[in-house]
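As a warm-up, study this chain.
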Amino acid sequence: MLSMKLETGMALAALGLHAMFIAYLASFYYALSRPIDIGNIITQPYQLVFVGMFLFALPGFGLAGVAYVLAKRDAPKTVAVILIAQGVLMPTGMFYTYTLTNIINEDYRIFDILILPQIFLAIGFAPIPLGIHIAKLKPVKKRYM
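Now compare it with the structure written out below.
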C-alpha cells in the first residue's frame, strides 16, 4: 500500500481533477464541432460546460489551496512540484482547448463557451506561486519536551 501524507494526496487529487477538466472540455468542444444531425442537437451546451467546471475545475483549485495550507508547516518538495505541475498543466490544456473553439459549429458559438478557456487560461497559473513558496520554505522544527 502506498503511504503518503494528506497534503500530497490532495495535491495529486487536484492535479487529477484539472487533467479530467481539460479532457472533458476538449472532448466536449470536439463534439460540438461535428455536423449537426436532426434529433441529436444539444439544446443548451453551456449547461454541460458549467457542470464540468463545477465538478472538476473549481474543486481542483480548492484542493490545491488546501494542500498548500497543509504543506506550509512541513514544506514537502513533492507538494511543491505537484502544484507547479498543476500550474503548468491547466494553462497548457486551456490553450489547446481555446484552439478548438475555432472549429465549433456556428449554432453552438455563444459567449459562455468561447470565453471559458480564456478565463481558466488566466487563472490556471495560480498554483505556480504556491508551489514556489512551498519549495522555498524550511520545515518547522519539532519541539520535544
